Amino acid sequence: MSLLRPDDLDGDEVAYRIFRVTRDRSPWRVEDVLREGRFSDDPARAERAWRVASRGYYAEQAGLVAAATLAAETDDAPLRFSLALATADEARHADAFYRYAKAVGGEPDVCREELQPLDDGLAALPYLGRALVHTLLEGLAADEFILLGELFAGDPLGRLYHHVRQDEIRHIAIGLNFLARETRTPEGREVWAEHAREWHDAGIGLTGLDEVAGALATHLGRDPAGVRAWFLRRHRARLTAAGIPIEIEGGR
Fold first, then answer.
1. 3-class DSSP assignment, residue 60
2. ∠241-243-246 over CA atoms, to 5°?
3. Which of 182, 190, 163 has its CA nearest to residue 242?
């Protein structure tokens, strides 16, 4: 890992602005969030919340590892600095889900094995592919948190998803900005044209989107195909708004 010149940090105005927004955010405290709302008296709902929060602990830890690894391996200064802040966010998220799980149902459910393929799949990709898939996962997670916030409305878990999602939105901006800048370079454009669809499809596979959409649809009383289409529609919109060229399911 090389140390980077200070003028590399603010050489791109938009990338540096995203770093500053992430740097200057107002942090939230999990202790305060756990006092927002009321824990459910319904045993089935409480168990569901415990399982979802347990999974959140491991998922956010996977995000922590991914962000830290990407930060350590890049020579892009604003990306490195922004991902360092995102890594700290992911640590706070993992701890928050852990604290919630303990409060509602005891020690978190052991679901590490379910998420290990995600970590392994990311590790197998080259840097640009990992950056794409990590950003894709952050985006789909932020969308999932909208629906989980609805599912657990009135419960502290619903408020926790609100706060975590605000952080994830900044993380998405970090990733999209890097991808947009990198795909404008001659080398990045060439590699992207050859491998982007392959990396993207691998990332969608790692999300377990069909299972996620099906479970959320069941709990919210919605059509699974409609929920899945909603996820992909929002995902496509993010890529298009960032000017990132890629053909994906359902077209641009």
1. helix
2. 105
3. 182
Structure tokens at 51: 């399982």
CA distance 1 to 7: 18
Indicate the residue type of 52. V
Residue matched to tokens 């350590």: 72
Tokens of 56: 């959140």
Closest CA to 62 of 142, 18, 121: 121
243, 183 Cβ separation under 8 angstroms:
no
Question: Considering the entire predicted model, what is its pTM?
Answer: 0.93
Provide CB contacts within 8 A for 249, sequence distance 6+.
Answer: 204, 232
**H/E run at residue 87:** helix 77-105
Handedness of CA 168, 169, 172, 174 (dihedral sign): negative
Contact 152, 51 (CB under 8 A): no
pLDDT tens-place string over residues 185-224: 999 999 999 999 999 999 999 989 999 999 999 999 999 9
Q: Residue 106 CA to chain centroid, in angstroms?
A: 25
For residue 35, report the phi and psi dihedrals to the nearest 5 degrees: -95, 0
Using CA atoms, how far residue 129 sits from 24, 47, 62, in Å, is 29, 36, 16
| Distance (Å, whole) CA 205 – CA 167 | 24
In three-state secondary structure terms, 148 is: helix
Nearest alpha-carbon partner for 167 in 22, 39, 30, 46: 22
- At 160-183, the pLDDT tens digits run 999 999 999 999 999 999 999 999
